[in-house]
Every structure is written in C-alpha cells, then in structure tokens.
Design a protein that fits this description.
280 residues; alpha/beta; Rossmann fold; 7-stranded parallel sheet
Amino acid sequence: MKILLAGSGDIAQRIPPKLSDQHQFFGLKRQPINLSNGITPLVGDLTDVACLDRIFREGFDVVVATLTPDSATEEGYQKAYIDSAAALSLAINTADHKPKLVIWVSSTSVYGQSSGSWVNEDSSANPASFSGRALLQAEQHIASLPCTTVVVRFSGIYGPGRTRMLDQVLAGVGRPAQPEHWSNRIHSEDCAGVIAHLIRMNEQQAPLSKLYLATDCEPVTQHELRGWLATRLNVSVVEEHATPRSSRRCSNKKLLDSGYRFIFPTYREGYLALMEQLKE
C-alpha cells in the first residue's frame, strides 16, 4: 500500500514504525530533508494544484495530511489549512487514481465551548479564533471528497520537541485553582498511533467515522497539571493568572470504542516518559 504523508513533520515520521513493512511511505514537503523511517521524499507545495496533479499520478492508496502553519497568523492558517485543503480536494477530484482513504489532522480548537463543559464529535463547532475558523473551513473541504475521509481533531500535543508546558513549569509558572482552566493533552506517539490505527481499520474494512476527537483519557486543570509537574521536577511555581481562553473537557469515547488503546493513557504516563527522555 502506498501512503502519501502530506506534510511530513514530527507526527508523520512517527507513523511508519507503527504499520507493517508492506506499506510504502512518501513524504511531501517543500523541503523534505532528513526524513526518517524509510520515507521517500517528494518535493512539492500542498497549495499548488499542478504540483498535486503530478504527485497523484503516482497512485496513492492513502493520504495523511499533517500540516503546520509557517506563522501563527490569519494568513499563515489560511495558507496551511484552507488553501491546502482546497488544492488537495481539487487534485483528488480530478485524479485518475483516487485514494481509498484521506486522513486530515485538525484540532479541538474548532470548539468554542467554555466553563469546563464536555465536548465530543457531536458537539457543535463554534470557533472563537481565526485559527479555529480556518481549521473548520479546511475540514469542510476534506469532508466533501469522493472517497473515505476521516478528520482527526487532536487536543494539545506534547512530547519530544513539544515541551512548552515543562519549560513554563521549570521557569516557575503555575496557574491558580480558580477559575478552572481545563487542559486536554495527547502525546505525539499516540497521535501517530491513532493515525496508524485508522489506516489499519480501513485495511480491515472496519467502519470508520468521518470524525474522531483524539485526546488522552483524563482532562486535567492547568492548576493540577502544573502542580503535579512541579513536584516531579522538584521546583516551586508561582500561580500566575493567564488571559482567559476557552476551557473545555474533551471526550475520547468514540476513539476508545473503535478499539484504540493509548500508549500513554493520561498525562502522568506521558510526562514521566518525556522527563526520562530529557534526562537521557
């Protein structure tokens, strides 16, 4: 099976070891250098329809899109998500050999709910930010494709190279207990694990939902999480108030019901493993 990793960054490069050797992986980026795990590099721009037309002549069975904006601006999100989704949609619609499955990585930032309310795949998406609106618009492009499509909304990703929370705690930044600010997290290894799980389900012709919310099994308040990390890191934190943001708890029930089992079920296992890696 030929799998196109459209945007072959950290998450994408973690996928191949989680699937069998029968799969061939191709990484599409503007500068696809230093790709790991036997990924064949392809040079291209996901917003360039002519480039994508040429790429899809190779006949890919699965496309996995894991994109990152060049900048955290409205223009950056427009190009990375909306423009890329529109170009990808056009290229797939006109391709002679259409992929059997397209997996599009999105984010739980498409939700606007606050006050600690629970959200799942059936909850309304009313993003309050330009980034959330761009992500939701991109999802809509992908959902209209003439093949099996799955949108995966990841919560806050952490892991090697994604240590912002640890860095803040090491710098002594805590959060107050009130008002509660909920944090939903997923380790980068589980991000790749979820994508590999969905590819296997498709191979086995198991029914796939069009949308999965991917987060670990225990939402936690920022106050509790930072306090727990501070104890393990043997540092003291000062409770600083942050600018209020949307605060919600994300449910992974649909993903668990599909048969996925987390490598790091909660932040505890994930951060303990990450801290051990950083020591090494």
